[in-house]
Write a structure and sequence with these properties.
By secondary structure, the chain is an alpha/beta fold. The chain is globular, with a radius of gyration of 20 Å. The protein has a 5-stranded mixed sheet with strand order 2-1-4-5-6, with helices on both faces. It has a 3-stranded mixed sheet with strand order 3-9-10. It has a two-stranded antiparallel ribbon with strand order 7-8. It folds into 2 domains: 170 residues, Dna Topoisomerase Vi A Subunit, Chain: A, domain 2, CATH 3.40.1360.10; 103 residues, Arc Repressor Mutant, subunit A.
């Protein structure tokens, strides 16, 4: 049996418990940077490698090494009679799950049976963020409660992945109007995905907007901001390295939304935290106050060059996302 899980913490706890089988930790961050329908093509992988190194500090060598290792195990899936996918409700995991379901939907499974364990809460935990919160014993208690993956789950995962990797923004929205109930947590996660796009109100995505609101209400250190963002937008499943990148973008001049006061260096994947960064204070600039109030559009002021899945956002962006009406609004 092969267990595919979403992170090293979960993998280590499964190994510590009485879980039969091999463990494959799937190391990816699909909510961040460019992704494509077929991720195993080198010419498509290279822009992702460059992006993750530039934004999150993940070295190209590390990424390629992990990628090749996990893909090799996946290619040899026929050696296992059963495979269990362990995932949770947030966007981070739902995209990972969709990728794997898309991949398996293109394979001849033969004797291999696919199973899914996917949860969005756990008894006794008020704000369930993920499987990593559970102890080895709690994870062990979940063993065997997984459900068989059938054609409907494979097709749904594949449709989600193909929509998310599309360069057409309308496909990112259309998937919200399709039946994705075979994967019960997908719809809420995908709604939060499109809410990351520039809004009709001021050009900010939900992460940037929420960050400015928190600062206006007195949350003024990087780590407190990350904690509160995690509480308010837990369905994103956003890691610290991605948030530091978003914070860095918001503080870059010209047209910075916020100012980070004090000497500091943003953490990267090699150095998770620095003492100077922990002691910094964050405050809104005049631009930040104006944009947060909806008086100006940040994309119009600053421009944009960003990726969300297969969607690349350029300066000539002609649409915004209206979160109230849940639809695209075109500017010309």
């Amino acid at each position: 049996m092969l267990h595919i899980v979403n992170g090293d913490i979960v993998g280590d706890k499964l190994r510590a418990g009485n879980i039969r089988g091999d463990i494959l930790v799937w190391r990816e961050v699909y909510p961040v940077g460019p992704v494509f329908v077929e991720m195993d093509e080198p010419h498509q992988r290279s822009p992702r490698v460059e992006y993750l190194e530039r934004t999150l500090g993940i070295s190209a060598d590390d990424y390629v090494t992990h990628y090749k290792s996990q893909e090799q195990i996946l290619q040899n899936f026929h050696k296992y009679n059963e495979i269990v996918l362990w995932f949770e409700h947030d966007l981070f995991d739902q995209l990972m799950l969709s990728y794997l379901l898309h991949w398996f939907s293109k394979q001849t499974l033969g004797h291999t049976k696919l199973n899914l364990l996917c949860i969005g809460d756990y008894p006794g935990i008020d704000l369930f963020r993920g499987l990593g919160q559970l102890s080895a014993k709690q994870l062990e208690a979940l063993a065997g409660t997984w459900q068989r993956i059938g054609q409907k789950e494979l097709e749904t995962g594949s449709r989600i992945w193909e929509a998310y990797t599309s360069p057409d923004v309308e496909r990112h929205v259309e998937i919200l109007h399709q039946d994705t109930s075979a994967l019960p947590f997908a719809h809420a996660a995908l709604e939060l995905h499109v809410s990351r796009l520039p809004s009709a109100k001021n050009g900010l995505g939900i992460v940037e907007q929420t960050t400015l609101e928190l600062i206006r209400h007195g949350v003024n250190t990087p780590h407190e901001l990350f904690k509160e963002i995690g509480n308010r937008l837990s369905v994103l499943g956003m890691g610290d390295l991605e948030f530091w990148y978003r914070l860095r973008c918001m503080s870059e001049r010209p047209h910075a939304l916020l100012e980070i006061r004090g000497p500091h260096t943003f953490p990267d994947h090699r150095k998770k935290t620095t003492a100077s960064f922990e002691k910094c204070e964050v405050a809104l600039t005049e631009v930040g106050m104006t944009v947060a109030a909806g008086v100006k559009d940040w994309v119009e002021m600053k421009g944009i060059n960003e990726w969300y899945g297969g969607l690349r956002l350029h300066d000539d962006l002609t649409w915004r996302w209206d979160s109230d009406r849940k639809q695209l609004v075109y500017t010309e």
